[in-house]
Design brief:
mainly alpha; 8 helices; about 75% helix; about 0% strand; globular
Amino acid sequence: MNEVFTFFGLLWENHTFLIVIHTLFVAALVLWFAKSAISAMQIVPQGAQNVAESYLGGVITMGKDVIGEDLARKYLPLVATIGLVVLVANLIGIIPGFESPTSNINFTLALALIVFVYYNFEGIRKNGVIHYFAHFMGPEKLLAPLMFPIEIVSHLSRIISLSFRLFGNIKGDDLFLAVILMLAPFIAPLAPFALLTFSALLQAFIFMILTYVYLAGAVTLSDETL
């Protein structure tokens, strides 16, 4: 979206530069929030600490139904960090003068690859290479030659699913907002802002819940596998 004004575009209008600088900006905001939450911790949380504890508690509650409370807490750092980065990256694109890093396929693909590599690593680490890949073959030995390639393709498709779902939704939201701002820059965008904020929250939630689902499938294998 080179044609849309951004504050960082005043420095350089190169789109790759804009995505990188907005990504660094998102990282700085997340680190600032985390630092604020732990800088003056209290027994009765207030301010940023209260927000952070509520967020982390919500992530654990979400993961508890998918993977169990112990594993939800174990993988909390990964899931909560990705969720917070995605949420902030989504939200800054709603503010005129900024662009969502998640509207770039390279950003979302990197996040999807992190999740893909990590859940497979955890599956192999916990179950061993042989047992982990054996569950790709299904419970019946006769169907193993058919099931194995299907499972491989299914797992690889998760990279596309995670990256393109987030990219497509946020890119569409950015284009929608750009059109609204060009047609009616004052009153009309107020309702779309609320809708886009909900969409940003929803996409972050979907990314986190899918990460938990993929981790659950990798580390809690059925005993019926080959």
